[in-house]
Write a structure and sequence with these properties.
Helices cover 25% and strands 48% of the residues. The chain is of the alpha+beta class. The model is unreliable at 1-21 and 72-77 (pLDDT under 50).
Length: 228
C-alpha cells in the first residue's frame, strides 16, 4: 500500500479525481459531451450571423448619418458623387484561375471627412463573380453587397492622376446550390484615377479579397466613372 502522504500518491489521487471511473455513467457523460459540442457549434454559427448583420446595419447607419451631416456643409467644400462601372478579373488562389468580376456602385465624398486618415468617401457597391468552372458565367455565382470607405489622395506634380485606398465590408451570397450560402466579405484596394475632365474619369485598381469560407484571391479591374 503506497504512502498516501507521498508526492506520488498526491499525483495518483489528483488523476483519480480528474478522471473518475464510473462505467454506469459513461454513456450518459458521452451524450452530454456531444450535446455540449453541438450547442457550441450552433451558438458559434448564430454569433457569426449576428455579427454580419450588426456590421451591415452599422455601416448603413454611418452612411445615413454622414449624408445628414453633409447637408450642413457649405456648397464649396469640394464634395462630389461618383457612379462607376468596373469590370475586371479575379485571380483565384491557388492556380491563379481567372474569373469574371463585374462591379457597379456609387460613392459620395464628404467635406467633414477630408482630413480623416481612413477615408473621405463612403461607397456602396454590388459585385457579381463567376464561382463555377467558366469565366463569364456558370451555374455557380457569387453576389456581394458591400459598404466601403475610400481615401483619395493627390500625387506629387501630377494633376490628372490621383490615387486612392478603398476598404469594403459586406456579405457575399453564393448561389447555384440547394441553398444560398451567405458569408462575410472583406476587400482592400489600391488604385489610381485618370481624370479626363470634371465629370469623366477611369479607375484602375488591384484588390485583395477574402471571404470566410473561400481562399483569398486578388482582382484586377479597370472602369469608367461619371462624377458630378
Amino acid at each position: 500500500m503506497p504512502d498516501l502522504f507521498s508526492p506520488s500518491a498526491e499525483i495518483l489521487v489528483g488523476e483519480f479525481v480528474a478522471h473518475p471511473v464510473n462505467s454506469t455513467h459513461d454513456g450518459q457523460r458521452d451524450n452530454e459531451t456531444m450535446g455540449g459540442r453541438n450547442h457550441v457549434r450552433v451558438t458559434s454559427k448564430c454569433l457569426l450571423t449576428s455579427i454580419k448583420y450588426f456590421l451591415a446595419w452599422n455601416l448603413a447607419l454611418l452612411l445615413c448619418l454622414a449624408s445628414w451631416a453633409q447637408q450642413e456643409q457649405p456648397q464649396d467644400s469640394g464634395t462630389s458623387t461618383d457612379f462607376w462601372i468596373m469590370p475586371g478579373s479575379d485571380f483565384v488562389r491557388p492556380g491563379l484561375s481567372p474569373k469574371a468580376n463585374l462591379n457597379i456602385g456609387i460613392g459620395h465624398t464628404f467635406g467633414f471627412l477630408k482630413k480623416d486618415p481612413i477615408g473621405d468617401e463612403l461607397t456602396f457597391g454590388y459585385t457579381y463573380e463567376d464561382a463555377g468552372s467558366g469565366f463569364w458565367h456558370s451555374q455557380l455565382g457569387s453576389h456581394t453587397e458591400s459598404f466601403g470607405v475610400m481615401k483619395n489622395f493627390g500625387l506629387p506634380k501630377i494633376k490628372r492622376i490621383t490615387g486612392y485606398t478603398w476598404i469594403q465590408l459586406g456579405i457575399s451570397s453564393f448561389t447555384g446550390n440547394a441553398t444560398v450560402q451567405n458569408e462575410f466579405y472583406d476587400g482592400e484596394s489600391l488604385g489610381a484615377i485618370i481624370h479626363f475632365n470634371k465629370h469623366n474619369s477611369s479607375w484602375i485598381q488591384e484588390t485583395f479579397n477574402k471571404v470566410v469560407t473561400v481562399p483569398w484571391y486578388t482582382t484586377t479591374s479597370i472602369g469608367y466613372t461619371w462624377s458630378w
